[in-house]
From TrEMBL:
PANTHER family: ASPARTATE 1-DECARBOXYLASE. Gene3D superfamilies: 2.40.40.20. This is Aspartate 1-decarboxylase. It comes from Leptospira idonii. It is found in: Cytoplasm. The gene is panD. Catalyzes the pyruvoyl-dependent decarboxylation of aspartate to produce beta-alanine. GO terms for cellular component: cytosol.
Amino acid sequence: MMITVCKGKIHRAVVTEAELHYEGSLTVDQDLMDLAGMRPYEQVSVVNVNNGARFETYLIVGKRGSGTICLNGAAARLGMKGDKVIIITYGQLEESSLPADYQPKVVFVDENNHPKKP
């Protein structure tokens, strides 16, 4: 049986911009995407910690090291600059092939969206 599991997560990132008049998506710093195992145009779930909104969109690459987390298009209605969000990707695999010690790639960030040292 196929199951869906969390593949990667950027935890409690701070929204740096919200651009309503932009074709919908979520722009994320390339460094954060790499650390979380995320790819351009990959589907993501976004959870806004401040207002409880949850939505799905896709990723657009932001400048490396910039800390950019930008809600674009309709997503800009679901959050604002300064909100904390959790960005999650999922993967599907055979349940029997899931290692007992499986862990998704989780990136914790500071107030500037730079990775915290483990």
